[in-house]
Amino acid sequence: MSRLDKRPKMKKTVRFILIGLVVVLIAVIGGYTYRSMHYSSHFLPDTFINGTRVSDLTANQANELLHDRYDAQEFTVEQNGEEWKTFKKADLGLDTDFSDELESMISQQNNWRWGLAFLSSANQNLELNTAAFDEQTLNQQTEELDQEIAALNEDRTKTEDAKIDQDEDGFTIEPEKQGDELDTKQASEAFKANILDGQNELELTRYTKQPQTTSEDEDLQNELEQLNEIAQTNGTYKINGEDVEIPTEEIMDWVVYENDEVTLDQDKVQGYVEKLGEDYNTSENETQFESTEQDEVDVDPGTLSWTINTEQETEGLSEDLLKGEDFERTPIVQGSAEPSEPLVDDTYVEVDLKNQHMWYYQDGEVTLDTDIVSGKPDTKTPTGVFYVWDKERDATLTGEDYESPVDFWLPIDWTGVGIHDADWQPTFGGDRWEEGGSHGCINTPPGEMEELFDNIEVGTPVVVI
Prior knowledge:
By secondary structure, this protein is α+β, with helices and mostly antiparallel strands. The protein folds into four domains: about 35-75 and about 90-135, no CATH class; about 135-205, no CATH class; about 220-335, Ubiquitin-like (UB roll), CATH 3.10.20; about 350-465, L,D-transpeptidase catalytic domain-like (Beta Barrel), CATH 2.40.440. It contains twelve helices and 26 strands. The protein has helices at about 5-40, 60-70, 100-110, 115-120, 135-150, 185-195, 220-230, 250-255, 265-280, 310-320, 430-435, 445-455, and strands at about 45-50, 50-55, 75-80, 80-90, 125, 165, 170-175, 200-205, 235-240, 240-245, 255-260, 260-265, 285-290, 295-300, 305-310, 325-330, 335, 350, 355-360, 365-370, 385, 390-400, 405-410, 420, 440-445, 460-465. A five-stranded mixed β-sheet has the order 20-19-18-26-21, with helices on one face. The protein has a four-stranded mixed β-sheet with strand order 22-23-24-25, covered by helices on one side. A three-stranded mixed β-sheet has the order 2-1-5, with no helix packed on it. Strand 18 (about 350) and strand 19 form a beta hairpin. Helix 2 (about 60-70) crosses helix 3 and helix 5 (about 135-150) packs antiparallel against helix 6 (about 185-195). The relative contact order is 0.07.
């Protein structure tokens, strides 16, 4: 056969081959296209979501598979490595319906790349948000857990901060105490955070409550220093010639530390000042007096007296204490006497109604003594600690039914009672007062009265007993 005869036959063969190839290509393209359409609603080969294989699954099929997986997930709370309480995450509000997110994943994948995904040895790993919780449910479960943890603390040792304490010498720091009490707030917050972070457990002992303030705390040390500066101050009152120490324990009870500074509880300071007045006010308390003939007697208050001004003294005492330095002070008073000195010292007049006698002491020595006539039974001379508040010559003493001129007049109270000469008295001392007594004044022989008037000073105490 010639070459010319073979050529048509070869052309025919080539044509069949080409037609066959076209048919195969069309079939392949058609098949790939068909398969690509399949992957427009299915996950590509070798696709994994959060470690779960979802190849060739629709969004609904994958959702069912993942729902079963995550619905079974649990969260365990442990104590010292042992299980204390276990929750199903679904009961904590975990949302296990991932439909929308899965649909979005499928729509974002290139379904035409299924062939490459099939031939590739690498897996396609996708991440799904598995920490979507219903906020109300999770919060409710967290609150309940908080209460259960608080109940655990009832049998645990409390953790205590370092704090200021006081003893008889002042303030000290009581060191912090580390207990095994759980910090319920921290534990509850960690519980919620771990769940939202996708974790599966919580160890409670990691949240043992720690002291917030230790003995080395700078602020606490500063507070201690300031408190002791005031509390260890030595305060002394000069009252009636005596030293009255303010007890350290009293001062410590008054000291308050607030707003980074030391102050005093004014109610307590005032209470102390009021008690001081109750004990020492000479306007309210009897005065012990060593008499010439009656030994020691208690004498009623009179015009020579003083009363502590509570408000002003509270303020003054507080100012001295807050200086943080030892001090002596005399109370601020109202009255006619100086509170720091004895009410009756060694210069005074003593009038003894029982013995109808009067003595004038100067610097502890008797410089004059004389019988007297005091007030009659229905106008008795008042007893008390008085003082000469004026000196007058040639005075006229008047009352409802009398008018008596005298040469020497020494008033001692505010009602008209005083010491004066009485030349009308025929005799002095004894029982004369019962029948010929005065309207309350102390009648004195003229000669002795002149001597007394010349030597006595205004302000001299007069003790009538």
